[in-house]
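New to this. Help decode both lines:
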Amino acid sequence: MNPFASNISRGKFDSISPGLALMAFATAFFSFRGVSLDALTFMQKAGASVFAIASGMAIYMIWHTVLNTLPQLQRKKDKVLASITLGVCCVLIFWLSSAFNVAGLAGKDAREVHLARYVAELEQSTSEGFESAQLIRGLLPDLRQEAAAYSSRKDLEFSQGIYSGGPGPGAVHSALSGIEGRLLSLVDEAERYSTQSEALNTSVKQRMDQVREIRTSTRPYAIRFRDIGGEVEQIRSDLAKMEVQVFAGSVKRTLENLPREVDVQANYSANVDVAKRQRTALDRVRADISQTTKVLAEFIQQANDASVGHIEALEPISAVKAVVIYADNYPAHWAGGIALDLAPLAIVIFTMIALGEKKPEELAISHGLNLSVSELADAMQSMEYLRRFGVGRDILKDVDQFRRGKSPGSEDDNGEDE
């Protein structure tokens, strides 16, 4: 058997223990860096130090215990149970230390990536919000045209009676006046909204310039995060005022109310024939309203389909969460962070393979063949002590049986005592 495997099977880790200790130190160091990235106060820094030291010690103790226990596992049941326990320990080690190791290696950069992507999404959302607000600029000519059309019809009805056949005020004239008033109010609202959107867009662009400047500055991350968060809240407020869906709701309510301007008219002429013509005229007005509704309904559909430009609030993100979210950016860091903690698993696996097919007698022979001169001298001295104290042959035979992996007092394969 290879001397290395033989030493492991005897519980001798002189060649491994320094490496385990060094790896425990390295993982503690990088864990501290990962945890301390989110520490601001002295107590938080102190807590990060204690956690890193404790996690390093825990990892060292786990692997040291595993390697010491490994040679004692002879039964399959024990090996299966040990393998399950080791798997659970590896999962615990990963979240106890490996993730913090990666955070220590790449956490600072990962948080910068998160901030950069958030700003990029913020720019896209602000652009979408302003583009949707621009729909109203396209609606204004249609609104003005419809309002002017009803104003002209109202005047012609009053002067010529183009709907009812009788000039002058009446039910038709009143309905047309009401419709014109509602459309003019909608035109005023659209103009105010358009002017406000232009002003808000200018403000948003200025704040976005400020956000980009803050992100690329050399100030500490926590301060930049706080300042960007303040700007983002103002941008979210401005975009909320620019949402075109709000104005689309006003247009929809106006269109729903236009037919009521016709329905509420009750000042028909006392003359039956004139009243009949007025009712017929109002039906024509309803037909005109239906055409107006078709024109403005297209805007409502466009507004409802438009991107809202929704912006999520800038939430704090830990270094560990950042390296997990953007893990595809740091494959080498993840490999290194995991290897710092789980590299001894390779030693465990290969040792289990090396010892798995060996019988206790073969292990005993291998141990004897791999004894050093110093160990042989110690063994001979121990034998001399045993002789001096008068240890009997039966006891020596039991010791030999135990050394060879058999129960004391057992017999050879032929059933006779050795």
